[in-house]
Amino acid sequence: MKKKKLKSRKRKGAKPRAIAAKRVVKGRPTVRRTAKNPPVRALAVRSAQASAIIPAAPPLPPKLKIGWFSFSCCEDNTVVMTEVMNDHWQEWKRLFDFRHARVLKSRNVMDAFDIAFIEGAIASEHQAASVRDIRQRSKKLVAVGACACIGLPAGQRNTFTPEQQAEIAPLVARFSALPKVLKVSDVVKVDAEIPGCPMDPNTFLAKVNALVKELRGV
Q1: How far is CA 180 from CA 86, 115, 159, 161, in A?
Q2: pLDDT of residue 129
Q3: Does the pLDDT value for residue 51 go beyond 70?
Q4: 97 and which of 63, 108, 112, 214 could share a cystine (Cβ 3.0–4.6 Å)?
Q5: Does residue 75 surpass a pLDDT of 90?
Q6: Per residue, what are the HEC states of the chain?
Q7: Residue 24 has what pLDDT?
Q8: Where does residue 152 rank: exposed (0-12), middle (13-18), buried (19+ CB within 10 A)?
C-alpha cells in the first residue's frame, strides 16, 4: 500500500515553481506569478526607483523671437537671408521663432521681438512711424544692407540737382514721401549694422551669432 501511495503522489506532484503553469479562469488562460513573471506592481516600483536615480534633463531655453522687415529697397538681403536659412535651418528652428517675416509665412504677429532686422531706407513718415513702433517692441534692432545703413541706393534722389528735385516733386507729394530719404539710424537707435548691397552672408552670420550669445548670456 505504501508503494502505491508514493507512486500516486509522484504522478500528481506540482510542477517546479520556475516554470509558469497555465490555468483557465472563466475560459481565459492566465499565468501564475512566479520568479520569471513578477507582479506588475513590483515592476512599477523598480521603474520609479530607476527614474529617481537618473537626473531630469534641464529645460531648453525659450526661442528668440525674430522680426524681419523691409522698407524702401530691392529686398536682396531678404534673398540672402533665406539662402543662409537653407544651410542652417536645423540649427535655427531650435533657436528662433520667426514672429514676423513675410517672406517665410503668411500669418505674421506684431508683438515683442528679441531681434528685429530692418532692411531698406525710410522714405515716408508712415515708414518712419513703423520703424519707431518696431524699435519699441525690440530688444535689439539691426540695420541690414546698404539702404538701411547709409540710405543708398534707395535714397538716390537726395543727390538730385534742384532742377531734378522740381521734376520729381509731384511724385514725392503723390506718395507722401519725405523730402529726404533717411537711413534707419536717422530715425531710431540701431544696435548693429550689416552693410552691403546685398549683405555678405558670413558677416550676417557673425552678427547673428554675436547677438544670440549676448541675449543668452553665453
Answers
A1: 37, 27, 10, 13
A2: 97
A3: no
A4: 63
A5: yes
A6: CHHHHHHHHHHHCCCCCCCCCEEEECCEEEECCCCCCCCHHHHHHHHHHHHHHCCCCCCCCCCEEEEEEECECCCHHHHHHHHHHHHHHHHHHHHEEEEEECCCCCCCCCCCEEEEEEECEEEEHHHHHHHHHHHHHEEEEEEECHHHHHCCCCCHHHHCCHHHHHHHHHHHHHCCEEEEEECHHHCCCCCEEECECCECHHHHHHHHHHHHHHHHCC
A7: 52
A8: middle
Residue 60 grid cell:
531648453
CA dihedral 76, 175, 157, 184 (to 10 degrees): -50
φ/ψ of residue 28, rounded to 5: -115, 130
* Contacts of 205 by beta carbon, 8 Å cutoff, 6+ apart: 84, 88
Domain annotation for the chain: domains and CATH numbers = 64-213 (3.40.50.700)
**Segment 97-110 mean pLDDT:** 95
Predicted confidence at residue 107, as pLDDT, reads: 94
Residue 61 is predicted with a pLDDT of 83
* Backbone region of residue 75 per phi and psi (left: phi > 0; alpha: psi in -120 to 50; beta: other values): left
d(CA 89, CA 107): 20
- Work out the average pLDDT over 154-167: 95
pLDDT averaged over the chain?
A: 85
146 and 153 Cβ atoms separated by less than 8 Å: yes
